[in-house]
Design a protein that fits this description.
Oligomer: single chain
Helix content: 25-40%
Largest sheet: 9 strands, mixed
CATH class of the largest domain: Alpha Beta
CATH architecture of the largest domain: 2-Layer Sandwich
Number of domains: 2
CATH topology of the largest domain: Dihydrodipicolinate Reductase, domain 2
Distance between the termini: 44 Å
Shape: globular
Strand content: 25-35%
Order of helices and strands: EHEHEHEHEHEHEHHHEEEEEEEEEHHEH
Structural class: alpha/beta
């Protein structure tokens, strides 16, 4: 039985917790947060009356009570906590991004190379059922070789969206703590991960990052990021905040994400992300003059359940995780290049990749998608 400690008991930790329910191979036994009210609330909410409570992550990591730690804290703390946990010979699941710069990313990769424990970057979007279905179709060769990728991130409003605690709003709008803006860098990391799993690491990036003030906070929108690859493929990420746009079907963020992959003989559309804009099929493919539609589970929580179950299965099997820190560095390099491009107003060259090829990771991801989080296909 894996003994799990959660470091960071903010709002998003509720979704991380879901993947441990019903598992007999892991149990959350310890909670850590600098705010004791958070740990008290989560201990009660998650029905963990016997969980050990910590305010200092060092004490948790050195307590001997945990085998695995989930690090779910503001971005600027990722490096120091992950490095400490790796040094204490623990399994580590680190929320994205792995760090705020490539130098710290390299130090984490070096530390992880000296341990036999699993150290992985937590990227739930790769386990979102509609994305898994699209990746499965790519693996099956339905659209041929991917040539281009279009990603659309559209925030709006929803009467059903959850309340975001003020401290979470504050650090996400503080570049020194977030690493960039809340849309292009924080949430955008998910989109850079999708671009990576489809096309790999770009060779060059050009970005224009806009600015919109909402109350006292600045959103990095509207924005556009363009990427070019050594293969000749191209990708774009469009980020828009539409203050009067109703986003339906979400209990989480008032946002929807869409993806279009064009290949040598067809196109795949993923039409549903966090929320819902219109009543359209979740996933659609077009090839050989024929449209196919696929319906998949669309609750955003499914992506977290899948990501957590993949971690537990990875530890049990001894295989490499999805994603390793090396792949996490490659995704981070593209995200940082976008920030630099927008600042300098120039095309930025991206460092050579250090992780596995996206094709190998994509094939493994599709093959090993945890039961209950896979994207079961439908008919035409």
């Amino acid at each position: 039985m894996l003994r799990v400690g959660i470091i960071g008991c903010g709002r998003i930790s509720d979704l991380h917790m879901l993947g441990y329910r019903g598992r007999d191979d892991a149990r959350v036994v310890a909670l850590c947060d600098v705010d004791p009210e958070n740990t008290a609330a989560k201990s009660k909410q998650w029905q963990l009356p016997d969980a050990a409570i910590f305010e200092d992550y060092r004490q948790m990591c050195e307590s001997g009570l945990v085998d695995l730690v989930e690090i779910i804290v503001p971005h600027h703390l990722h490096y120091e906590i992950a490095a400490f946990a790796i040094g204490r010979d623990l399994h580590v699941s680190l929320q994205k991004p792995m760090s705020l710069d490539l130098a710290d990313a390299d130090r984490l990769i070096s530390a992880a190379s000296d341990t036999s424990r699993v150290v992985r970057l937590y990227e739930n979007f790769l386990f979102y059922p509609p994305v898994l279905k699209a990746l499965e179709l790519i693996e099956q060769g339905v659209i041929g070789k991917p040539l281009s990728l279009r990603l659309k991130s559209n925030a709006g409003y929803s009467p059903n969206a959850w309340d975001i605690p003020f401290p979470a709003l504050l650090w996400r709008h503080t570049p020194e703590e977030c690493g960039g803006g809340p849309l292009v860098f924080d949430d955008g990391h998910h989109k850079f991960s999708l671009a990576w799993i489809v096309l790999g690491q770009p060779s060059e990036v050009h970005a224009w990052i806009g600015s919109t003030f909402v109350l006292s906070f600045e959103l990095d929108s509207p924005s556009l990021v363009s990427m070019r690859y050594e293969s000749g493929a191209v990708a774009s990420l469009e980020v828009v905040y539409s203050q009067d746009l109703l986003i339906q079907g979400t209990e989480h963020y008032a946002q929807d994400d869409r993806m279009e992959v064009t290949g040598t003989k067809g196109v795949i559309w993923v039409n549903r992300g966090h929320g819902q804009i219109g009543d359209v099929p979740t996933v659609v493919s077009y090839t050989d003059g024929r449209i196919e539609t696929y319906e998949c589970p669309t609750g955003w929580e499914q992506s977290f359940i899948g990501a957590t179950r993949s971690l537990l299965d990875t530890i049990a099997s001894g295989r490499e995780p999805i994603l390793t820190l090396a792949e996490g560095r490659d995704v981070l390099a593209a995200a940082l290049a976008a920030q630099q491009s927008a600042k300098d107003g120039s095309v930025v060259l991206v460092p050579d990749p250090v992780g596995r090829s996206p094709q190998s990771v994509r094939a493994e991801l599709v093959q090993s998608a945890p039961a209950g989080a896979d994207a079961a296909g439908g008919g035409a």
